[in-house]
Amino acid sequence: xxxxxxxxxxxxxxxxxxxxxxxxxxxxxxxxxxxxxxxxxxxxxxxxxxxxxxxxxxxxxxxxxxxxxxxxxxxxxxxxxxxxxxxxxxxxxxxxxxxxxxxxxxxxxxxxxxxxxxxxxxxxxxxxxxxxxxxxxxxxxxxxxxxxxxxxxxxxxxxxxxxxxxxxxxxxxxxxxxxxxxxxxxxxxxxxxxxxxxxxxxxxxxxxxxxxxxxxxxxxxxxxxxxxxxxxxxxxxxxxxxxxxxxxxxxxxxxxxxxxxxxxxxxxxxxxxxxxxxxxxxxxxxxxxxxxxxxxxxxxxx
Length: 302
Known about the structure:
Layout: E1 3-5, H1 11-17, E2 22-24, H2 25-28, E3 36-41, H3 47-58, E4 65-71, H4 82-88, E5 90-91, H5 92-95, E6 100-105, H6 121-134, E7 135-141, H7 143-153, E8 158-172, E9 186-196, H8 199-203, E10 208-214, E11 218-224, E12 229-232, H9 242-253, H10 278-294
Parallel strand pairs: 1-2, 1-4, 3-4, 3-6, 4-5, 6-7, 7-12
Antiparallel strand pairs: 8-9, 8-10, 10-11, 11-12
Helix pairs in contact: 1-3
């Protein structure tokens, strides 16, 4: 089944060209199916790219999904046209009276700031508190993962000696976890960050389980013991050229940056990237939607 998105969303044409089944609202309303209601709290500066990447992964399932986009309206977005936000996004105040089957909170390039220094931190805390009673399952990604672990469980983030940047192999702590059904014994996933959560802090917390980690990139996937919150440090949602774009951007700005590991063919930035995480990314999101959202949410709870 397709993912139901707002009419004329820019992601539609790009994803249709990738042969991904997208259904616009005008067609979806004629189907007598109760879709999963998924909200995306999009914190990324370039929201159009981020929403397209998330929609690409949400669409690879037999479930029909209705996607609601919202943003932190007190923060001025410098990289997304205001017209796009006005047409396709809502504010948290506009959606908070509703219940959702799933919520995704993605990242933002603010990881070098203390959480309380982020100008929308209080608003994001309100979203995370609201999710406890209004959302069946919440997936936190990248800085959103660090923010969620800090807010819900007091887990600190720490600066790294250098940026973790590239595609790294991860090991699974328990392959019987439904989130990893269909996974290989190890899997690759992209990372791009300057900070980390310490594995020992997660392992020592009674309400958290470390599900996947990398010897080079550290903690990647964490789940709460009640299985209602998932925290992902990496970027399964990245498209083929995201790390390349970040590398070229930092080089152009004169920011010291190493070639992303295990990414370009022959580790040569003049050659094309090699995508090795796409299959596991699709599995992760389809498993999340099926086992942690669809199987757990009431048919009617609105």
